[in-house]
Amino acid sequence: MYRRSQSRQRGIGMLGFILIVGLATFFITILLKMGPAYLNYWTIRTIMTEVAKQPQMIEGGPRGILNAVSKRMDVNNLRDRSVKDDFAIEKVDNNVYNLILSYEDRRHLFFNVDAVVMFDYQVEVRLP
């Protein structure tokens, strides 16, 4: 009886172990390559929200909004995104603007495989 249950409890084989390590390596590689793109996006979203919450600090209408975003992006060392290419300003009403972010980020994963992620976000800015 003891030998019979012992043979059923052999554990994972070499092939199973290699498969698990390979899958773990694959997903960790994707996480390490794509993580910075998402961190940059979340930082830009925070910047946009801060600009919308503090409109009294902005002078100059739409250009002032973009300048405020650009300065905060420089402080946060986000140099791979361009304010004039990735942001748009849309006038909604008198002194009310939509600050629109829209861009895609391409990251090389391995061999000839790249990942493309698209980011869109919008916030309303009410100037005094």
TrEMBL record:
Pfam families in alphabetical order: DUF4845
Keywords: Membrane, Transmembrane, Transmembrane helix
InterPro entries for the chain: DUF4845
Transmembrane feature ranges: 12-32
UniProt protein name: Uncharacterized protein DUF4845
Protein's organism: Thiobaca trueperi
